Amino acid sequence: MASLVRPWVIYLSLLLGLLLASLPLPVWMRSWWPDWPLLVFIYWCLALPEGLGVVAGWLLGLLVDVYRGDLLGRNALCFALVAGLVQVTYRRMRHYPLPQQSFMVALFLLLYLVVDFLILSLRGTPPRHWSFWYPVLTGMLVWPWLFLGLRMLRRRYLRSR
Amino acid sequence: MPGDTGQERRGLSLRLGFVVLLSAGLMLADNRLSFLGQVRAWLSAPLYPLQSLVSNGADLGRSVAGWFTSRESLREENVSLRKEHLRWRARLQRYEVLEAENSRLRALLESSARLEDPVLLAETLSIGLRPEQHTLVLNKGERDGVFIGQPVVDADGVVGQVQRVGARSSTVILLTNASHALPARLDRSGLRAVVAGTGFGDRLLLNFVLPNADVRVGDLVVTSGLGGRFPSGYPVGRVLSLEWGANALTRAVVRPAAQPGRSRELLLIQRPSAAPPVRTAHQVLP
After folding, report:
1. What is the pLDDT of chain B when averaged over all its residues?
2. Gap between the Cα atoms of A33 and A80, Å rounded
3. What are phi and psi of B152, to 5 degrees?
4. Which residues, 6+ apart, have CB-to-CB distance to A105 below 8 Å?
5. Which residues contact A107 (CB under 8 A, 6 or more apart)?
6. Contacts (Cβ under 8 Å, ≥6 apart) of B44
7. Rounded distance, CA B79 to CA B107, Å?
């Protein structure tokens, strides 16, 4: 990422995603709350696939694990897998219209939760409620706005390549 | 460009495979071994300002909202609080008499058990954990003397126990977590049983009760003190219903007494003398 002018924008937006994810919310809203850090990370993966990849995803996921006091490696693995998926598909994704793009993002989120579900089940504490899967829906709905916002940010502050 | 040629793609899958193995190893280590606790404490220290920022922001929002509370609602609240205060004072008088009597009787029996345990007040850091996780993060850590396995209660009953300790924060596993169980007894009949979490926030299970055991709907379940982690006599919940379980045994559904989502202040019970040797936090209680 040597060619970037202001890489702190990326860190700042990821930090903001973490803050958004940790807002104190009423319980009913919390299970619908999209996975902000992951969504922001997917955006930067799409925008700068040379800079952010599997390893960056793993590190960020580890940070999320520590932040939430969660099983170390749980989010790390999921973030890395999603990063790998984006690395394979970003060429096509970039040319999709926004609705189709958010559908793809929903697929990524679904995969993320499936892996998470497997991890939790192996550990003996599978989630018992459908609310576990709600963030896929809300993430899909939120994606276009997030995409437009972050693209504006990127065009303003980052000159890549 | 990644994903461009076959070579690049091989590189990607190599990296992915490496990361998957690394994560699996990390999760196993975190689940089974305890040495990662130090690593975690070390990693979470720089994140603490972020957590407290969110928490303080929420406090600020609440106090701003407090300025706009109407005079009418404040008066109503005041009246109801006054009533409640009176009611508790009346009960407290009885309690004081009972405590004095109890300590007199205990002195007669030459036993040194006490009714009151020293406590440490802690606040939950509102860091938006998902409800299915059944854990909480508190703003007290190793520096405040928090230890693994320390019981956590709120105003109504047992909340859970400390699972992991950081320098300034700690993670609490709730009673309702499916991997948690604690020894309890029925207050009325003295029947001992194990109360297990279910993964649902509003129910616990009293497993393996004999069909002819003395359990009734509405019975108060309290901690038994067996196992050495929880002091005895703290309310766990009330029996909500009885249903058939495995092997012709019954099981009782218990509604937890504590409501950790409702208030932010929780109490950590300090009993360093009775703390068992610390082992991994995921160990299910005996």
Report:
1. 79
2. 21
3. -120, 130
4. A39, A42, A139, A140, A143
5. none
6. A66, A67, A69, B166, B167, B169
7. 42
For chain A, the average pLDDT equals: 84
Q: Which of residues 103-132 of A touch B (CB under 8 A)?
A: 119, 123-129, 131-132
Nearest of A54, A28, A8, A35 to residue A154 by alpha carbon: A8
Domains of chain A by start residue, with CATH: 8-157 (1.10.1760)
ipTM of the complex: 0.75
* Residue contact A80–B24, C-beta within 8 A: no
How many degrees, rounded to 5, is the angle at CA A61 between CA A59 and CA A66? 95
Looking at the domain assignment, is residue B106 inside a domain? yes
Q: What are A123's two structure tokens? A: 């550990």
**Does pLDDT of A119 surpass 50?**
yes
In a domain, B109, yes or no: yes
Subunit contact B12:A131, Cβ cutoff 8 A: no
**Residue A146, pLDDT score:** 92
For residue A76, the chain B residue with the least C-alpha distance is: B23
Q: What is the pLDDT of residues B29-41, one digit of tens each?
A: 877 766 677 777 7
Total number of domains constituting chain B: 2
pLDDT value for A138: 92
Which of 5-44 (A) contact B at CB < 8 A?
Answer: 15, 18-19, 21-25, 27, 30-31, 33
Q: Which domain holds residue B110?
A: 70-114
A78 or A25, higher pLDDT? A78
A144 CB-contact burial (10 Å; exposed 0-12 / middle 13-18 / buried 19+): middle
Measured between beta carbons, which residues in chain B are less than 8 angstroms from residue A19?
50, 53-54
Q: CB distance from A64 to chain B under 8 Å? A: no
CATH number at residue B217: 2.40.10.350
